[in-house]
Amino acid sequence: MTRPKVVLVVLVLTAVLFAVGLGLGVGRNDPGKVDLRQLRQNALVKAAEGMFVKKEKLDVTRLTTDGRREGNAMIIEQGATCRLDIPPGDADVRSVTLRLTQGNRATLAFRANDSPEMTLKQPLEAWTKPGLPAWGASAVGLLASPHGPGPLLAVSALAAGRTGEPVELQVFRQGGTLSLTCEDGSGQPRACRVVLE
Description:
By secondary structure, the chain is α+β, with helices and mostly antiparallel strands. The chain has two domains: 3-52, no CATH class; 56-127 and 162-196, Jelly Rolls. 28% of the residues lie in helices and 34% in strands. It has helices at 3-26, 36-41, 43-52, 136-141, 150-159, and strands at 28-30, 33-34, 55-57, 64-65, 68-70, 73-76, 81-86, 93-102, 105-112, 119-125, 167-172, 176-182, 192-196. Strands 3, 5, 6, 8, 11 and 13 form a six-stranded mixed β-sheet that branches. Strands 4-7-12-9-10 form a five-stranded antiparallel β-sheet, with no helix packed on it. It has a two-stranded antiparallel sheet with strand order 1-2. A hairpin with a 2-residue loop joins strand 1 (28-30) and strand 2 (33-34). The longest helix is centred in the first third of the chain and has 24 residues, at 3-26.
């Protein structure tokens, strides 16, 4: 190796070590401890991850299921479980966002094909903005308005609406099985609707 090449290699290694050190330093919240959530949000770490990890959105049309499907949504009866098989893929990591749009609570469980002894479980719950209680939509909608009750009803329904808090699932190359269980718990027999994006 010639002298300029050695110098260039040393400079590149120094820059990489500096970037890693800077990334770890930004992620620190306590002396001696690294918060991995903060570290993943770091732009430098994201850039390095983008260079080495092939990521893409999971193609939900390729999933096979034993449940009822409506477009990109799964409909699960209360107390029932549906399974979605995620086939192996070309990307290192594929991601899918799950959102509960009907029902009060569902649970997702993911088991990777390469490690069936480990299962990741995560609840999906209906999300209600604080402010107006659930009965607020009808009560506010009955109030007199120069434009009729419609606009107030729509605004109060939005404030008290149920747009499920989304959960992002990242699936590695080997694929796995995703199970969705509807645990509504409202006392009324109603199905859960989980949208996969």
